[in-house]
Amino acid sequence: MILSGLLNYSKAAISMFFMGKLGKSALAGGSLAIGVANITGYSFISGLATGMDGIASQAFGARNGCLLSHTLQRTIVLLLILCMPITLLWYNFESVLIHSGQNPSISSIAITYLRFSIPTLLFQSLIHPIKIYLRSQKVTSPFTLSTAFSLAVHIPANYVAVYCLDLGLEGIALSGCLADFNIMMSLLVYLFFSGHLTVNSLWFWRDCASFRHYEDWSPIFSLALPSCASVCLEWWWYEIMIVFSGLLVNAPEAVATMGILIQMTALIYQFPISLNQAVSTRVGNELGADRPKQALMASVVALACAIFTGIVAMSFMIGMRNVWGGMFTSDQAIISLVASVLPVVGLCELGNCPQTTVCGVLRGCARPTLAAYINFGSFYGVGLPAALMLGFGVELGLLGLWLGLLAAQMVCFGIMVVALLRTDWEEQANRAYVLTCSYLGEEENETSKEEPAPPVVVVN
């Protein structure tokens, strides 16, 4: 999962690299567009998709293939419906940027990139649920291989679009769409030819009638909405800082610098998010199989690994402070600003890595609502006022915005650990039984709790 995460990150880093080659304005506009896309689109798609994480992993542990398949179906439908309003918003977002005080020239560049990125919404709506569906069954290599294939095509696609066809930022956006399309098609081909899904089980024609009833959607809605809130509250913070950086005196340099810093955090984030996904799957599998002690052990081991990862990440960022900016641009003002802020970004990882991992534990327990409350209180009750005061009140600028994030991450880390220590694992195993029992007869559930989960679930 770490390898697939790094490969997926490389796709965004390559796009940012080619934006930097187009100049400071293109880099600033592209960074702003990516921030807007994350706030208004990708965060919702990723967040709603994670709602199936707890259900799918517990269903696999309980050998409930029906629940596993139906969760995938409903999540895909939910995300496809969501794409419609997001598409309309992206296409008409320029006026919002201008009225929020953004530089008009940067806003114009950003909206161009945003409009050409619209097809990725459809592709991501399939990629995320399929990835979670496979990961809940401990199948991770298809996503890694599909991402590697996509990345191999992504580099020459950007080069041809920028230097041969002279498409500029539009070409970079279309290259990103092509990369996601390749991943989606690779996963679909794997699903059909591996036997994980059949045409009926994926497109669910025989089950469409049951979608009219709320009780069929209730489990996924009850977890998808708070999961979405939890993911969005954290994602939005980083993207809101890009928007705030556009209100600083040195807006072009600040926005471009923020985009480069976000690339560093995105690189490091692949390690805690991999721990997050792994522990979510493991905890869900163990609770679904009625093994609460193993779920506790997995959580403790994952937290220890996350703390170590945070220390390594901080050291890496501090060591790269004078190098990282030059990898994306030759503008000395941006390079100096990156070097001054990156050590604070590194300190943030001391809290970010553990809290991200504990979020995975809560999701595996099907408790995303608690994670949403913690994220909201930490990032917006503590971090946002601190960032505004330090960034604009004390006039520390970009450094002050990141110091606000540092405060938020540390508070979030502390509360998450307390929540983990107070978890009643026997109660969580009982909750998992109730969740999976709703899709199986009592006799089948009793059998499933005594037998180990099979390596692969085949749904017809």
UniProtKB/TrEMBL annotation:
<dbReference type="GO" id="GO:1990961">
    <property type="term" value="P:xenobiotic detoxification by transmembrane export across the plasma membrane"/>
</dbReference>
<feature type="transmembrane region" description="Helical">
    <location>
        <begin position="332"/>
        <end position="350"/>
    </location>
</feature>
<feature type="transmembrane region" description="Helical">
    <location>
        <begin position="26"/>
        <end position="50"/>
    </location>
</feature>
<feature type="transmembrane region" description="Helical">
    <location>
        <begin position="71"/>
        <end position="93"/>
    </location>
</feature>
<keyword id="KW-0812">Transmembrane</keyword>
<dbReference type="GO" id="GO:0016020">
    <property type="term" value="C:membrane"/>
</dbReference>
<dbReference type="Pfam" id="PF01554">
    <property type="entry name" value="MatE"/>
</dbReference>
<feature type="transmembrane region" description="Helical">
    <location>
        <begin position="370"/>
        <end position="393"/>
    </location>
</feature>
<feature type="transmembrane region" description="Helical">
    <location>
        <begin position="105"/>
        <end position="127"/>
    </location>
</feature>
<keyword id="KW-1133">Transmembrane helix</keyword>
<feature type="transmembrane region" description="Helical">
    <location>
        <begin position="296"/>
        <end position="320"/>
    </location>
</feature>
<dbReference type="GO" id="GO:0015297">
    <property type="term" value="F:antiporter activity"/>
</dbReference>
<feature type="transmembrane region" description="Helical">
    <location>
        <begin position="399"/>
        <end position="421"/>
    </location>
</feature>
<feature type="transmembrane region" description="Helical">
    <location>
        <begin position="139"/>
        <end position="161"/>
    </location>
</feature>
<dbReference type="GO" id="GO:0042910">
    <property type="term" value="F:xenobiotic transmembrane transporter activity"/>
</dbReference>
<comment type="similarity">
    <text>Belongs to the multi antimicrobial extrusion (MATE) (TC 2.A.66.1) family.</text>
</comment>
<protein>
    <recommendedName>
        <fullName>Protein DETOXIFICATION</fullName>
    </recommendedName>
</protein>
<dbReference type="InterPro" id="IPR045069">
    <property type="entry name" value="MATE_euk"/>
</dbReference>
<dbReference type="InterPro" id="IPR002528">
    <property type="entry name" value="MATE_fam"/>
</dbReference>
<feature type="transmembrane region" description="Helical">
    <location>
        <begin position="181"/>
        <end position="205"/>
    </location>
</feature>
<feature type="transmembrane region" description="Helical">
    <location>
        <begin position="217"/>
        <end position="238"/>
    </location>
</feature>
<keyword id="KW-0472">Membrane</keyword>
<feature type="transmembrane region" description="Helical">
    <location>
        <begin position="254"/>
        <end position="275"/>
    </location>
</feature>
